[in-house]
Batch of 2 targets.
Target 1
Amino acid sequence: QVQLVESGGGLVQAGGSLRLSCAASGGTFSSYAAGWFRHAPGKEREFVAAINRSGGRTYYADSVKGRFTISRDNAKNTLYLQMNSLNAEDTAVYYCAAGWVLSMTSGRDYTYWGQGTQVTVSS
């Protein structure tokens, strides 16, 4: 029903920044909580950041607090993740997700997922 498409990934040097975008279509984006998750090779998918429907509440994994900022523009049906001070541990495929969730930090609670965008941080 809802389609999500990530963009903005790429190769960046350690200490650099990237801004990821997630374009939503096919539904009322403003009615959904949304979040970012990442999946690195050999590791389980992990929560990165989440934001409520209005954008007034945000949640972050401890590993990215102070470095990443999640935001949304409901008028543009777009979710963002500003990533600063990147390090090698941030290398992963990043996925955006949306849905009516019980837990904003649990990937299993989200219904809609994007295809992912690769972020690679060189040392």
Note: The CA atoms of residues 30 and 75 lie 8 Å apart.
Target 2
Amino acid sequence: QVQLVESGGGLVQAGGSLRLSCAASGSILSGYSMGWFRQAPGKEREFVAGVTWSDGSTTYVNSLKGRFTISRDRALNTVYLQMNNLKPEDTGIYYCTSDVMQAILDGSSHYWGQGTQVTVSS
């Protein structure tokens, strides 16, 4: 089975940047995608971004307005989330996920990492 391990979270001031990483064990299945979700205490987990593993096509939640960028390194089986101009409302636990893109978008993704905490101070 695919195992996902996130890293790169931490405490940052508003306006700063962080780069999250998610390393996947083994090879990624043909047709699968990888993505990022985030969740604040008491709130539902929300989609952030996704990338198709085969061709690198990306999709983002509209509210991020270009501040976040997702990318993947196929040789390292790793997906990244570059987060710029961070705001306090970006605070939450960020989770890496893997499945077909449709499953990721509708919330039924099968594979999840443990999550990494991102805290943005004002």
Note: The chain has a mean pLDDT of 93.
